[in-house]
Amino acid sequence: MKILLIVGIVILILLAILGVLYYFGNKMQKKQLEQREEINAAAQPVSMFIIDKKIMPMKDAKLPKAVMDQAPKRYQKAKIPVVKAKVGPQITTLICDESIYGDVPSHGEVKAMVSGIYLTSVKTLHKATKKKQLEEAAAVDEKGRKKKKSRSERLIERQAQYQKQLQTDIAMKKTKEEEKAARAAEKKRREREKKIVD
Predict the structure, then answer these.
(1) 75 half-sphere exposure, CB direction, 13 A CA radius
(2) What DSSP state is assigned to residue 7?
(3) Distance CA 131, CA 162 (A)
(4) Average pLDDT over residues 96-101
(5) Which of 21, 58, 139, 185 is deepest in the core (most CB within 10 A)?
(6) For residues 99 and 190, what is the distance between their CA atoms, to the nearest angstrom?
(7) Do residues 54 and 63 make contact, with C-beta atoms less than 8 angstroms apart?
(8) How far is residue 185's CA from residue 195's CA, in Å, rounded to a whole number?
């Protein structure tokens, strides 16, 4: 009897913890979506030449002092995808969105959307750069095996997949909400027409 009581209490505690995690997860997801919308609204198209791309700690990325001052201390040691690019006559360091890091060529000219120092999307301009990108993706070592990616690159790829899945889910949810709103508007219109006829 005591064992059942203890198991029941443990299950209730676990359910409470899951409920709290679900609530805060939804809250964080909404906040992230709002931030992404703000970033996309402020983004501007820029042509640039990508010099190099790396995954490195934020403190070693040589970002502007204002960015480093605003970043919390725990994030300054975290590894982030960084792109060094030539924008016009100036060489700048940009923080790359994880979901597009794999699409950014290591060398080549691109058309990109940039919001401040945040690179949100990229499109390769030249066929030669695209060809080189495909060759790098299919690169093999001396023994004919596909080159292994580092742990951080695999994590970023996985995060990019989750990000794309989230974006498709959000798009589907928006279309469903729009359809529902259109049906409601159509229903109101029909009710008004019936009142006019009566």
Answers:
(1) 8
(2) H
(3) 26
(4) 80
(5) 58
(6) 45
(7) no
(8) 15
How many beta carbons lie within 10 A of that of residue 119, not counting itself?
27
Decide if pLDDT at 4 tops 80. Answer: yes
Backbone region of residue 85 per phi and psi (left: phi > 0; alpha: psi in -120 to 50; beta: other values): beta
Query: Which contiguous run of DSSP H or E holds residue 153?
Result: helix 151-197
Q: Rounded distance, CA 74 to CA 19, Å?
A: 27
Query: Which of 11-15, 94-98, 99-103 shows the highest mean pLDDT?
Result: 11-15
Cα–Cα distance between 145 and 138 in angstroms, integer?
10
Q: Is the pLDDT of residue 141 over 60?
A: no
22 residue type, one letter: Y
Q: Is the dihedral of CA 127, 157, 59, 95 positive or negative?
A: positive
Is 104 exposed, middle or buried, given 0-12, 13-18 or 19+ CB atoms closer than 10 A?
buried
List phi, psi (to 5°) of 139: -65, 140
pTM: 0.59
Give the containing element (helix H, strand E) for 193.
Answer: helix 151-197
E strands present in 28-169: 44-57, 79-87, 90-96, 108-115, 118-124
